[in-house]
Amino acid sequence: MTTKAVHTFILKSCCGGVLLLMAAGVRAELTDVTQTTPNVPGGAIEKSLEQQIGAGRGDELTPGSSIYLIKRDPTRSVRRGRQLFQRKFTHDQGQGPRVSNDSTGDIHANPALGAGMTDSCAACHGRPKGGAGFGGDEATKPDSRDAPHLFGLGLVEMLADEITSDLRVIRDKALQLAVKTKKPVKLPLESKRIHYGFIQALPNGEIDTSMVEGVNPDLRVRPFFAQGGEYSMRAFSVGAFKDEMGLESADPMLCQATDPNFPIKTTSPAGMIFDPALDRIKHSPVCDANEDGDGDGVVNEIDPALIDHMEFYLLNYFKPGTGEMSARAKSGLKLMKKIGCTGCHVESLRIEHDRRVADVETRFDPKKGIFNRLFATATTLYDTVDDGQEFPKLLPKGNDFLVKNFFADFKRHDLGPAFYERQYDGSQMTKFMTEPLWGVGSTAPYGHDGRSINLKEVILRHGGEAQESKETFAELDDNKQQMILEFLAALVLFPPDDTASNLNPGNPGTDNLQDPAEHGSINLGALFQIPTEGKE
After folding, report:
1. What predicted TM-score, i.e. pTM, was given to this entire model?
2. d(CA 160, CA 358)
3. 480 is a domain residue
4. Residue that finishes a domain, picked among 193, 208, 223
5. Which CA distances in Å does 216 have to 191, 233, 275, 284?
6. Mode of pairing for the β-strands spanning 207-208 and 194-201
7. Phi/psi of residue 520, each to 5°?
8. What residues contact 198, with CB distance under 8 A and at least 6 apart?
9. Smallest Cα–Cα separation from 252: which of 242, 267, 233, 240?
10. What is the 8-class DSSP label of residue 245?
11. Each residue of 10-45: pLDDT tens digit?
């Protein structure tokens, strides 16, 4: 069978629910068998960090490079990113203090000092087990910060980026009209049926942003961090490696876009555009692979090829699922809409141009679901392009996609004093991004600071712009309040290595829940195009 024929067979089989390959188990944190004693089968990473870097970034014609895999075997790149996310880094690889001393210093000047030093991404984002979830608590603020889950992160980035583009088109239109008519022009800022205030352009070319609501004056939606501090997963990842693990990357995307002499517009392999003419872009910790920025004796700690795989992994990471949805829970959603919760927690939003290569829909299924009674259906979202090379390109279709059960509006809101956040300099932060509710049933405790013990308490904590909805909820009888809470409890996260799917359905009906091999899994290896050379 030819390579293309095998690939066609894999696509048809996996989407039809046929078991193709047994998944290697994935745990919250993974050790590297090339540098440690081998773990249980599937319980560790089979490739060394150098092997995962492979041929570096390269290009789409450089076998083994990150860009080659993203273009020709994208699910393998996702697997590399997933293992990087769960990898336990060592001191020899550069993990350790952020600076050459013991990381003591002025936490006001460097809030990262309160983050705590860890050795893996999964240490703060590892619940449920094996997923890019939640679980960490940091002292980067006096009242702490609760690490959010990262399920569906690529969808979040794409929605925010499209809203930004829409708002800036409206701004440019207002300016063109003002210059043409020689009169001030005021236009509503609206994208995806969400209102962001108004923009006013003046005939002299000035822009009045005083009526803009929920976003910065530059109209860039920054969905990451509770205060809305970052817009790209790539910069988010580079910063987290540095601040939480002491690992530095000389990332060419960020370095080129922030070059002090000749900043240039760049596009990452995952399709994110970094344009210094439009945005304030976070600079990479170092921009020379031979520079030892933190003085620990290790250089090029996170090769740019690994950043490519991490960004691509997060772009394509599974969105949250829906657990058992009873009639009472469905009534709870209706009540949420009635009392005004969905004014800010907008239920569903549509992406116009999806950059992902696959989607996974995870739902309650008592027949096919085994562990947690959840079953995931993976669907590929790419076209095959034959360019005469040994393996064809697999390019994202770029179709539109409705993001369901999202429940957020990508705006900052004042939720009242109970949510205000103290800063180390004595000031207060009073506005925060609306937290998407998908996955909320799995992520107690609640609030950006993790200080609310359950869903009811965090709802009753709301004030400010949400005061009226909070009061209406408080006035509901206990039965109706419970309906809303039951709906929210059905918005769940899941452990991908224990969730049966059409890529590995496991053994439905099994009584042997102790054996992970019986559970099924979301097996990305079933979608690999390039034959495995050794263990992946």
Report:
1. 0.92
2. 20
3. yes
4. 208
5. 15, 19, 17, 23
6. antiparallel
7. 80, 175
8. 186, 187, 188, 189, 211, 212
9. 267
10. H
11. 333 333 332 222 233 334 678 888 876 655 555 688
